[in-house]
Every structure is written in structure tokens, then in C-alpha cells.
């Protein structure tokens, strides 16, 4: 499969250092406020950029959750699709934590796959 258009440059951040600092300093739900007005391609590029760095991976998943799957695929090919799926799974896990009564543990499954 040919490399996606946006994934060739792994080192260049798609936003300025000031914006990256704002994102890192923001609360989890404030990322939508900061990136809400960005073009879809820039948001997808930033999601992929952050996801590829272990210390920014959770931020990358938050940004990917705000992207369309097609934008992430255009940016990073098959990796973009995987990032999209992981972002949706991470969102579902977060929603589960919010709805579970405080102090209760999630059910344990001993099912072997």
C-alpha cells in the first residue's frame, strides 16, 4: 500500500509550538474548544502526530475522536484507521467509567479468546 500523503514527515509538528503548549496544558475536554475551528486535515494531522509519540498518545486519541475516519485514513493510511478505532474504543471506556457508580469495579471476564 502506498504511504498516505500526510504521513511521510514524522518529525514536523503540524501546529505552532504555542498551540501545542495550549493543548498539552488543557484539560481533557478543553481540546475540543481549541481544535474545534481547525480544518479537518490539520486536526487529523495533529492527532496522528501526537499518537506517534508515546508521551502524547492520549492527546492523539482525544484529537482522533474529533476527526472523521476518512480524514485520519487520508493522513496516515491504515494506521489512521487504527487510530480512529482506538479513539472510539477509548471514548467508550471513558463513558463506561462515568456511568459506573463510584467505588464499584468493572466486571471480570475469564473468557479466553
Automatic annotation (TrEMBL):
UniProt-recorded name of the protein: Uncharacterized protein
Residues covered by region (Disordered): 92-113
Domain of life: Bacteria
Organism listed in the record: Roseibium alexandrii (strain DSM 17067 / NCIMB 14079 / DFL-11) (Labrenzia alexandrii)
